[in-house]
From TrEMBL:
It holds the Pfam family Pyridoxal_deC. This is Glutamate decarboxylase 2. GO terms for cellular component: cytoplasmic vesicle; cytosol; Golgi membrane; presynaptic membrane. Its main location: cytoplasm. The keyword Transmembrane helix does not apply.
């Protein structure tokens, strides 16, 4: 009579052989086991890979593990060139990777497998025969997978499966048939640079911490100022995490330029400030006004023509009205590429008005 274990394996094998040494079979059942909660999936994976807990008489002092994975590398090469197949991820966790002792071999194998998954996704993203997205409704994904955040760490086998699953349902922004605002596809050099910066894992607080990155920031911003037209790249600049906070930075600088005392004394020390922007501009202008204490009512929306461009005459009219009420116009935010129309405000005409009334001009640019 077959044991329960052999019956289980016979049921689980793809070829009906029930071979418990078949890694493909173990992996398939391990994927099924991950739907169990409370850490049960991890324990089942350990059993499936043939390394059950030791009997009580053995002392049970050490958790189940693949001892061959803990052995020192014998290839005597740096970096290690041992085959990836020798690393059994079902028994390995993040704590087994570098800087752990003897963590070089599993680290190289694990990261190489992650890289393989990513590269396969990159190639597939440009395949016109594939879908842009394997779309599922939220309730479908929640039912199909176990989303519980377990108290115990998952093994590397599970992490690799999660990587594959994540990309399976991700939208392929590099796909030839993917069209969306603010997305320019997948740039290979940019992707490599992203991997580089993530691997370097440093901040840019000081030159001492990130000498190369700080210098790159300096020369890049200088070149951008030259392209804009500032003589010799003079001026200053900053990289920001997004357009919304960039608009708030602009509002912050314009306020400080006109009323530097606001830094120490706050908004109570300045008069009512008024900002102006197109009625088709980004909502982040009002968000920035709210965050800086200026108030959303202090952001005046200027009428646009039939093509979505700000009307300069209406801008000047509203500026005059604000001044007559005793308010202080301090910022005009023009838009170069509105969200809906892709419209460009008449920048030269707006600049002339700002110069006439001594108002800071900001341009919110969104050009892919």
């Amino acid at each position: 009579m077959a044991s329960p274990g052999s019956s289980f394996w016979s049921f689980g094998s793809e070829d009906g052989s029930g071979d418990p040494e078949n890694p493909g079979t173990a992996r398939a059942w391990c994927q099924v086991a991950q739907k169990f909660t409370g850490g049960i999936g991890n324990k089942l994976c350990a059993l499936l890979y043939g390394d059950a807990e030791k009997p009580a008489e053995s002392g049970g002092s050490e958790p189940p593990q693949a001892t061959s994975q803990k052995a020192a590398c014998a290839c005597n090469q740096k970096p290690c060139s041992c085959p990836k197949a020798d690393v059994n991820y079902a028994f390995l966790h993040a704590t087994d990777l570098l800087p752990a002792c003897d963590g070089e071999r599993p680290t190289l194998a694990f990261l190489q497998d992650v890289m393989d998954i990513l590269l396969q996704y990159v190639v597939k993203s440009f395949d016109r025969s594939t879908k842009v997205i394997d779309f599922h409704y939220p309730n479908e994904l929640l039912q199909e997978y176990n989303w519980e955040l377990a108290d115990q760490p998952q093994n590397l086998e599970e992490i690799l499966m999660h990587c594959q699953t994540t990309l399976k349902y991700a939208i392929k922004t590099g796909h030839p048939r993917y069209f969306n605002q603010l997305s320019t596809g997948l740039d290979m050099v940019g992707l490599a640079a992203d991997w580089l910066t993530s691997t370097a894992n440093t901040n840019m607080f000081t030159y001492e911490i990130a000498p190369v990155f700080v210098l790159l920031e300096y020369v890049t911003l200088k070149k951008m100022r030259e392209i804009i037209g500032w003589p010799g790249g003079s001026g200053d600049g900053i990289f920001s995490p997004g357009g919304a906070i960039s608009n708030m930075y602009a509002m912050l600088i314009a306020r400080f330029k006109m009323f530097p005392e606001v830094k120490e004394k706050g908004m109570a020390a300045v008069p009512r400030l008024i900002a102006f922007t197109s009625e088709h501009s980004h909502f982040s202008l009002k968000k920035g006004a709210a965050a800086l204490g200026i108030g959303t009512d202090s952001v005046i929306l200027i009428k646009c023509d039939e093509r979505g461009k700000m009307i300069p005459s209406d801008l000047e009219r509203r500026i005059i009205e604000a001044k007559q009420k005793g308010f202080v116009p301090f910022l005009v935010s023009a838009t170069a590429g509105t969200t809906v129309y892709g419209a460009f405000d008449p920048l030269l005409a707006v600049a002339d008005i700002c110069k006439k009334y001594k108002i800071w001009m900001h341009v919110d640019v969104s050009i892919p």
